[in-house]
Amino acid sequence: MRGMSRLDILLPFGLPPAELSADLCQALHTPALASLVARAGAERATPAEPESGFHRALPHERWLMQAFHDKRSGRNSSPPIGPAWMRAFGLDPGDGTWFVVQPVHIHIARDHLVLTDPRQLMLPEQESRALFDIAAPLFADYGKHLCYGNAGTWFVRADAWSELDTASPDAAAGHNIDIWMPHGPAARDWRKVQNEVQMHWHGHAINEAREARRLKPVNSLWLWGGAPADAVPASSYTDLFNLSGWMQSFALAAPSSPAQADTASAVIATRPQHGLALLDTLLEPALANDWSRWLDGMQALEEKWFAPLLQALGNGALDRISLIATHDAGLVRFAASRLSLRKFWVKPSLAPLYS
Hints:
By secondary structure, the chain is an alpha/beta fold. About 30% of the residues lie in helices and about 20% in strands. It contains 11 helices and 12 strands. Strand 9, helix 9 (about 265-270) and strand 10 (about 275-280) form a beta-alpha-beta unit.
């Protein structure tokens, strides 16, 4: 007799923004999603604002922090994934406190500076290595060891910065960076290193060549994700699917190796005991306010994920599904089972996504 099969689907920015929700949902043709959310039990969470007046991590990032047993969940800071992400790259953090350092582009708005989504940087390995080689000795001058992960991801050991509250780049992207910069007793020390690197990169041949190709220059660094080296994620999930970017740091939390799945059918075939699948295709268009691409992404998810999930619930291939959908300010969890699909009197509707 098979055990129960449960699947949680994390859908960052699966909730449309309030001011556009009616128009966006009207433009969607997603009958499977409409059936799931209309007949599921819904739990809406809009967490209270912290004392600072804003969260330094997005709702789906905070949900992941709790799901993977983050002991610092009471702090208003970015997900503490530095050492775990290093391990995902095959690096050994040893001891101390490690932060993520990402090369970024910060552009000048009318009267403030704005962080550009790092995904838009399109930084190749050769250029990143050259910029890293400039930055590493500057960090060393301040007693900090810089370590290379990949073109967009570096790490720094900074034990004295362990109390810094930092913001994730996705939370800060597109905003005035003043309030999103690292906050705490060592913030000034970080600014000194950051300014030093910025001066050495300014006008460098790499950036001049990038601008000649109409690419954004790499003109700053973003610090976040600090945690002690012995911080190891843990959770009750038995199977993880489609982890990408920093979320790969949770790979050690499940007994089986994380897998990639293009469709729900590929996940269902594994019969997960308690699985988590990340569907992050809506994240980038939402951060860019590209709602046409967001609509295209939702339509693709309907075909590849929502329709097969609805079918799997109906035929018993899955016993329970939880769809955790978020936007930039809140989260809704839709819990569906085969029994909930029997609510034939409830008409399919996308209204629960924004009501």
